[in-house]
Amino acid sequence: MSVDQDLEKLLDNLPFFIQENLTNHRNKDKLVEIVMDLGRRPEARFANGSEYLSQKMVSWQDIDYITKRISHFSDDNRAGIERTLHRISCIRNRQALINGLTCRVGRAIFGTISIVRDLLQSGQSILILGKPGVGKTTIIREIGRVLSDEMGKRVIIVDTSNEIAGNSDIPHSGIGRARRMQVAKTEFQHQIMIEAVENHMPEIIIIDEIGTELEALAARTIAEKGVQLVGTTHGNCLENLIKNPSLADLIGGIQYVTLSDDEAKRRGTQKSILERKAYPAFQIVIEINEQNSWTIHENVKNSIDLILRDNYSVSQIRQFSTTDKTSLKYKKFQTNSNSVPLFNSQSYSKPIHISNSTNWTTLSQQNYVKYGNLKTKKLLIYTYSLSNNLIKEATRKLGLTFLVTKEIKQASLIIGLKKHLKQNLKLKKLAKQRNIPIYIVNRASVYQLIKLFQSLNY
């Protein structure tokens, strides 16, 4: 990874007694923000802690010195410095006078999204969840650059607070060739989102901090027009969106459904249950747990349905280190028990191709192989257009025993790639005659095969 932070341009706008303490500070590269409150000592917050910068108290003159050297504050009390990504936010008293400043360091970090590059290539809409300060804006800035420069897409960024592309008419180089539309007032963000689609023919729209019902509705409208979305919103996990009425529309919306007595008895649930109303506007959700550990939901529709049914789900965790080594882990969670892991996760490192879709279809509905029996009996698998090594890797991670057969007549089940199996009518006819279930996957990946074997638990 490489970092472009323009830190000196921020320090030049600070009072001298703060500037001199930070210029030669040993942790200057880890600086996150500088806090200045009237009548208090100025404080620097680093990635690994915070410390006071001076014994001198911040005065009205110090705050006035900074505010006169930066751009005007917008309606959301944010301002910036020309040609940089730094953000200055203010706190006002009852007379609307500024009595506190938070100077946030903006950094363009190149290489942060290498672990989810396959998801960008999938063409599906991606929503990024995370707490404030975890780096969501930095991530989508890099996503804009990669999509526009390296993948040649037509990208428009709706930059509400000028945090993505900087506070000037010329956008920061960190977004590459992507175009930027500024928003005059925060409450107009949803209108600019629709205007971007109608006027500028983008293939991809990037939005930071989707936070209102109107913005969620605009995101759904854009998705229905066939435009790929990349957005961020505040939240720790996918379940937060379900509990947030304003943002639930991003994942399809939630509604109460009343079941008949027989249906409720068959499901073993109450008569009134929660269900997803529609198809999600975002097909992929990335939870930023930590800066180097992300949880991926590659099939949001399936994940939401499992959460609403208090069922078990498998989450994919991608981690990377300073050596650019990436590892993948799979964990099984029970959604109604605060996501407590039920078994130890397995991991492996690059190079692994992660599938960009986890959907599969069952062509034959008879003679399902029960997951509960998979560990006690040997499977005879007939593979079609799939590497035996992929099957071996997937079953090994689940602790299954299997044998590969070249004779369809001996097979317990058939697994193959969708695009090849659909064309083989002879194979489907033979499988139907012998009552052999066929399972198809969209991509040849270990992760998708693991998900397929897990789905056999009927």
TrEMBL record:
Annotated keywords: ATP-binding, Chloroplast, Nucleotide-binding, Plastid
SMART domains with a match to the protein in the record: AAA (SM00382)
A Pfam family the protein falls into: Spore_III_AA
SUPFAM superfamilies: P-loop containing nucleoside triphosphate hydrolases (SSF52540)
Domain (AAA+ ATPase) ranges: 122-261
Protein's name according to its UniProt entry: AAA+ ATPase domain-containing protein
InterPro entries: AAA+_ATPase (IPR003593), P-loop_NTPase (IPR027417), PTPase_dom (IPR058670), Spore_III_AA_AAA+_ATPase (IPR045735)
Domain of life: Eukaryota
Gene: ycf45
GO molecular function: ATP binding
